[in-house]
Amino acid sequence: MPDTADYSRKVPRHVAIIMDGNGRWARKRGLPRFAGHKAGMDSVRAVVKVCLSEGIECLTLFAFSSENWRRPAEEVGLLMNLFMVALDHEVKKLHKHGVRLRIVGDVSAFAPELQQRIVAAEQLTAGNTALTLIIAANYGGRWDITQAARSIAAEVARGELDAADITPELMQSQLSLAGLPEPDLFIRTGGEQRISNFLLWQLAYTELYFTPLLWPEFDDKAFAVALESFAGRQRRFGRTDEQVEQMRDA
Ligand code: IPE
Ligand code: IPE
Ligand code: MG
Fold it and tell me: Is the entire prediction scored with pTM above 0.90?
């Protein structure tokens, strides 16, 4: 495998976040769970702002997992509605700031009105370069790898590809985040230390950061602390620390 890893970067190019803890935030205040999801929008705005000011190229936010359909129908409905409202209210602002919006996940399960808004938002912002904001919605890491395998299998079946030519790079090129740098920093709020079927393939060498802060509590200061933690880490990608230090000094 060619070594294209970035050993010395202090500011991540790509941050991926599991925005967890909205329900508990609301419960602590005696509010319905949905109030927590709504409050979490402020944290999204704060994190996007920091990414823009720090020159972070990509931000991927886990908004709705393929397993979140298991929640009570009322909560699922309210989340879908919040997604629509957010697209209606935030896209113009994001566009003004040069943000490119991309939605990854199986969007075919969403209502047609929501799918239309997704397409419109992606088209409007397609030429922007300040930040790529990726929203993972009805996303699952296993789904992502499976859909990539399916499309490669179809090529093989058509005789366009030899099974022996399937490489990690080819797999990568069929995944939802193809063409984007791999996440350098993963953050999960809410205290849980698990991946919950988020980016399984892409997190192979990502630095992991867990915080007990609930998502609506996660602000620009909390994000700065996470970025500081990242800056203090030595990434080795399989090499020894001596090798990495030599590369830095060279
Ligand atoms: C994360 O917050 C948001 C979504 C999964 C949509 P939760 O709703 O999972 O909040 P907790 O974990 O129950 O506190
Ligand atoms: C992960 O959070 C999904 C999102 C934040 C969208 P969950 O709250 O669904 O994860 P589990 O169920 O605690 O693993
Ligand atoms: Mg949760």
Answer: yes
